[in-house]
Specification:
Elements: E1 3-9, E2 14-22, E3 28-36, H1 43-61, E4 65-69, H2 77-96, E5 100-104, H3 106-114, H4 121-131, H5 141-154, H6 170-177, H7 181-194
Parallel strand pairs: 1-4, 4-5
Antiparallel strand pairs: 1-2, 2-3
Length: about 200
């Protein structure tokens, strides 16, 4: 059964997005890009632009699931507050459209896509380029990260932590990190790409 997933990589200056169709023999790239806002704008003005952009993406691509990055730790408090506000807008829009949301920490995402929780951005981009059979690596980095989230979200149907969960404790993190069939399929696809 096919499922369309919209991956969202929240940011105020550049908000990455990527769409994949999953359910066939391998996931299929649909589109990717980044919504941009000017640094001179207030946070409220930036959120308005991003709200309209995300709403437009949902209207255009009609995803059945949204995969978004969870803020796991952030040393820059000001940045964390802004990203939290952007995430809140995205989550509200998803709720308004009754779209299921799944969330991944950066390490969960890297482990599922590149096979290592501390993988570099380059390794993740290389992995999604192979997994989606793209001729060139997706740019900008925010869009590449969003495509990785969409790929992860396509395999996250059985994951229990959903948007709004405040109980992502160590046991939940351990369960999420356990290898799934999707993880094995990703590794097999990467091995096939090397041969």
């Amino acid at each position: 059964m096919s499922m369309r997933v919209l991956g969202l990589d929240p940011g105020t200056a550049a908000f990455g997005w990527g769409v994949v169709d999953a359910g066939g023999a391998r996931p299929v790239h649909v589109a990717h890009g980044a919504l941009r806002t000017a640094a001179a704008l207030t946070l409220g003005e930036r959120l308005t632009i991003l709200r309209d952009g995300i709403t437009g993406l949902i209207g255009q691509h009609k995803p059945e699931r949204i995969a978004i990055e969870r803020i796991f730790s952030q040393s820059n408090v000001q940045s964390a507050v802004a990203i939290g506000a952007v995430r809140g807008v995205a989550l509200l829009i998803a709720a308004d459209h009754q779209i299921e949301v799944v969330e991944a920490t950066p390490s969960e995402l890297k482990r599922a896509i590149a096979g290592e929780g501390r993988a570099t951005k380059t390794a993740v981009t290389k992995a999604i380029t192979k997994l989606l059979a793209l001729q060139v690596a997706p740019t900008p980095d925010d869009a590449a990260d969003a495509l990785a989230l969409a790929l992860w979200g396509a395999g996250a149907r059985k994951m229990e932590h959903r948007s709004g969960s405040s109980r992502l404790d160590r046991s939940a993190s351990a369960a999420a990190a356990a290898e799934s069939g999707f993880d094995r399929a990703v590794r097999a696809a990467l091995r096939a790409g090397r041969s």
